[in-house]
Design brief:
Blueprint (H helix, E strand, L loop, with lengths): L2 H14 L8 E5 L6 H4 L2 E6 L17 E7 L2 E7 L10 H13 L4 E10 L9 E8 L28 H13 L5 E7 L8 H9 L4 E3 L3 H9 L3 E11 L10 H24 L3
Parallel strand pairs: 1-4, 1-5, 5-9, 6-7, 7-8
Antiparallel strand pairs: 2-3, 3-4, 5-8, 6-9
Helix pairs in contact: 1-3, 3-6, 4-7
This protein binds hypoxanthine.
Length: 274
């Protein structure tokens, strides 16, 4: 067994000492959306610090715990607080939680994040279904000896974001009378926001939103054969498009304002995943 698999198995053992809950869906909550985990009736809550070898986020406003709950009839593990590459963690650390949630039983990965919008017609507060990503600017989390027990050496990436799940999100939004954008998410390392020139580059490359997470999580999940979907909440217009300077406070405030709408969508989509 590979070193990575041994590490994940240790984490699984820690979790299994506390709960035998088997999730079908793994939900990752982005900036400001952490509240969602407080609204569900938790069957079990495990702090990251209780899981041996689990990376712990240092970002203000990011909690660190796994919440196990049934949403409707769908068993879900919610990651309340993710770890980011810019915090200084290795990519192996960054994607460890995703691998753990798969090992706990999750077949579907539902990613959420806050992102800067640069797509045509995008405005602050929009929700964007991720239909593809560009992760070329950050190290690939699969670099290193391949763990054959997790996935193949050269995984196909032609449909990372599952078409049926994207359709499910759109259909659910229609039923709720919400309109969604769709587009490509581009990941940069952060933690500095982009320059206007970098945003022009991202736009030229075909991106509609930029952020500092998510794509590498999708790479690791795709490696393990998970079905993936993701929604970016456009917390601000990207640098050079926005008339004001960017700040983490602005991102959090915008996230709080749109949270009820976003959370209702996520809840309804997950209920339909049963
Ligand atoms: N750039 C990068 N990451 C972000 C942004 C942004 O404008 N907004 C929220 N996360």
């Amino acid at each position: 067994m590979s070193k990575i698999s041994e590490r994940i198995d240790k984490c699984v053992k820690c979790v299994r000492e506390k709960t035998d809950f088997v999730p079908k869906v793994a939900l990752v909550l982005g900036s400001g959306l952490g509240d969602f985990a407080e609204q569900v009736e938790a069957e079990a809550v495990i702090e990251y610090s209780e899981i041996e070898g689990f990376p712990i986020s240092t970002v203000a406003g990011h909690k660190g715990r796994l919440v196990f709950a049934n949403i409707g009839q769908t068993p879900v593990v919610i990651m309340q607080g993710r770890v980011h590459y810019y915090e200084g963690y290795s990519m192996e650390d960054v994607v460890l939680p995703i691998r753990l949630m798969k090992k706990l039983g999750a077949e579907i990965l539902f990613l959420t994040n806050a992102a800067g919008g640069l797509g045509d017609g995008f405005k602050c507060g929009d929700l964007m279904v991720i239909n593809d990503h560009i992760s070329t600017f950050v190290p690939n989390p699969l670099i290193g000896p391949n763990s054959d027990d997790l996935g193949v050496r050269f995984p196909d990436m032609s449909e990372v974001y599952d078409k049926d799940l994207r359709e499910l999100i759109h259909n659910t939004a229609d039923k709720l009378g919400m309109s969604l954008k769709e587009g490509v998410y581009l990941q940069l390392t952060g933690p500095s926001y982009e320059t206007p020139a970098e945003i022009r580059m991202a736009k030229t490359l075909g991106a509609s939103a930029v952020g500092m997470s998510t794509a590498v999580e999708a790479v690791a999940a795709n490696h393990m054969g998970m079905h993936i979907c993701g929604i970016s909440f456009i917390s601000n217009l990207a640098s050079g498009i926005s008339e004001t300077k960017l700040s983490h406070e602005e991102v959090k405030e915008a996230a709080d304002a749109v949270a009820p709408k976003f959370q209702n969508l996520v809840k309804n989509v997950i209920e339909a995943m049963k």
